[in-house]
Amino acid sequence: MVKAIAKKINPPQTQRRPGIEKKMKPQPIADAHISLTEKLKNKVLLITGGDSGIGKAVSILFARQGADVAIVYLSETKDAADTKKTIEEYGRKCLLIKGDIRKENFCKAAISKTIKQFGRLDILINNAAVHYETKNVADIDTAKLKQTFEVNIFACFYLVKYALPYLKRGSTIINTSSVTAYRGSQDLIDYASTKGAIVSFTRSLAANLVKKGIRVNGVAPGPIWTPLIVSSFDKKRVAEHGSKVPMERAGEPAEVAPAYLFLAGEDASYITGQFIHPNGGEIING
Fold it and tell me: To bridge 111 with a disulfide, which of 29, 153, 162, 235 should be the other Cys (CB 3.0-4.6 Å)?
C-alpha cells in the first residue's frame, strides 16, 4: 500500500492544458506496489484518461492484478508511453488509443480496436475529464461549456453504447465522478454539473443493466494530485490544492486506484449503483 503521506504543500506551478505528468513537481505516485493477487487475471480493461493521474494509477494497478489494458488518451503521448512501459514491465499487454472522446465515431472505433487487439472487454472505466475555472457564471464560455459536457458525460454514453455488445454477465462499468457532484463548486459550476450527471447516469445505468449481470458503480475523488490540477489553476491554488480537507493534503492517484480495483473485482459482487469517496475525510453523505 501507499506509505503514510505527511501533510504537504506542493510547489507553485502551472502548465498548459491538458498537463504533462512528468513535468509535475513532485510527480504523482501512480504505483502503490500492492501485492500481486491476480484478482483480474486475463481480464481486459478499457479506460479513458489512462495516460496519467488517476487513470494511470488504475491502469498500473489493474495490470499488476492480471489485466490487459487499453488506454484512451487525448494528446499526452509521452505520459501514455510511460504508462504503457510500466504495464508491460508487469507482464501485461497495453494498447494505446489516441483521440478525442467528444467524437462518437472515435469512441466506437476505440471499442473496436480494443476488441480487435484483445478479443474481449470485461471492464470499462469512464475516467477522462476537463474543467475550466470561472469565477462568475456569466463568464462561462459557451464553447468550453460544450466541451466540458462532451468530454465528461457525453463520452460516457458513447462508450457504454458501443461497449455493451461485448460486455457479458460479470462485466463491470466504473465511472469517475467527483466530490463536487455532492457539495458543488462555486468556481467549477459546469464541471460539477457534469459530475452530478455522472452520478445519476451511474445509478440509472446500474438499474438498467442489473438483470444482465453487469454491475455499474463509481468513484468520487476529492482533491487528487494530477496533471488536471496544474494545467487548470494558478500557482497559488495549485500550491494549496487539498489543504482544506480534513487530512490537509491532496491525495495521490495510487491512493484512489484501489477503490476501482475493489469495484471491478468479485469482492464487490453484491454492489451496484454505488459510489466510493476517497476525498481526504470530507463528509458528503451521498
Answer: 162
Model confidence band, residue 131 (pLDDT cutoffs 50, 70, 90): confident
Residue 47, beta-bridge partner list: 71, 125
How far is 19 from 159, CA to CA, in rounded Å?
24
Q: Are 274 and 24 in contact (CB under 8 A)?
A: no
Which stretches of the chain are assigned E, i.e. beta strand? 44-48, 68-73, 94-98, 123-126, 172-176, 215-219, 275-276
Superfamily of domain 40-276: NAD(P)-binding Rossmann-like Domain (3.40.50.720)
Q: What are phi and psi of 274, to 5 degrees?
A: -120, 165
| 8 Å CB contact between 124 and 174 | yes
Provide the 10 A C-beta neighbour count for residue 42: 12
Within 119-249, where are the H helices?
142-149, 155-163, 180-183, 189-209, 227-230, 235-239
Gap between the Cα atoms of 50 and 66, Å rounded? 17
Omega cis (within 30) before 227: no
Q: Is the pLDDT of residue 6 over 60?
A: no
Provide the annotated active-site residues: 191
d(C-alpha 250, C-alpha 193), whole Å: 22
Which whole number is the average pLDDT over 209-234? 85
Q: How confident is the model at residue 35 (pLDDT cuts 50, 70, 90)?
A: low
Question: What pLDDT does residue 241 have?
Answer: 72
d(CA 109, CA 248): 42
DSSP letter for each residue of 123-137: EEEE--------SSG
> Residue range 179-196: average pLDDT?
96
Q: For residues 79 and 56, is the Cβ–Cβ distance under 8 A?
A: yes
Beta carbons of 146 and 238 less than 8 angstroms apart: no
- Residue given cell 476501482 in the structure block: 260
